[in-house]
Amino acid sequence: MFNSLKLAAFAAPLSLLACATPESDAPVDTADGQVRSCFFISQVNGFNDAPEAGIGSDRIIVNVGVNDKYLFETFGSCPDLNWSETIAFDQRGPGRICQGLDVDLIVPTSIGPQRCPVRMIRKVSEAEIEAMKD
Predict the structure, then answer these.
(1) pLDDT at 83
(2) Contact 70, 39 (CB under 8 A)
(3) At 40, is the secondary structure helix, strand, or coil?
(4) How far apart are CA 105 and CA 130, in angstroms?
């Protein structure tokens, strides 16, 4: 099921992100020698529930650009994340999103917006997503 996506209206960061260049998906080397893929918030175009059964409501797949998908995992449970039709991103500063500490999810709930800190973000392939379904 594909959910619509509503981005948070933060004027300054979004105005800076509107100038994103195609190399925004370029890998970034980390201190431990691993390569991490990054993206700009302006490239996000939707999200889906992560298909892995039994995990709870702490994971989503975020669609970026035409074919890229990223697994977002929150710290603990995020109420209503798996039922929400909209989410917002609260990015910490302008620039690329490369890790969980770069962004929080804002999820509407029956008692008001819930801030869900993101623990981990990683790029996933279609094969990995299919394997999660098994």
Answers:
(1) 85
(2) yes
(3) coil
(4) 24
What is the residue extent of each domain of the chain? Answer: 11-133
Residues 6+ apart with CB under 8 A from 21: none
* Strands (E) located in the chain: 28-29, 35-36, 44-49, 59-64, 68-74, 88-91, 103-107, 114-124
- Residue 64 pairs in a beta bridge with 44, 68
State pTM to two decimals. 0.72
- Residue 60's pLDDT band, with cuts at 50, 70 and 90, is very high
Q: Residue 2 has what pLDDT?
A: 42
CA-wise closest residue to 49 among 62, 65, 67: 62
**Best CA proximity match to 109, nearest among 74, 71, 81:** 81
130 phi and psi, to 5 degrees? -65, -40
Instruction: Using pLDDT thresholds of 50, 70 and 90, give the confidence band for residue 45.
Output: very high
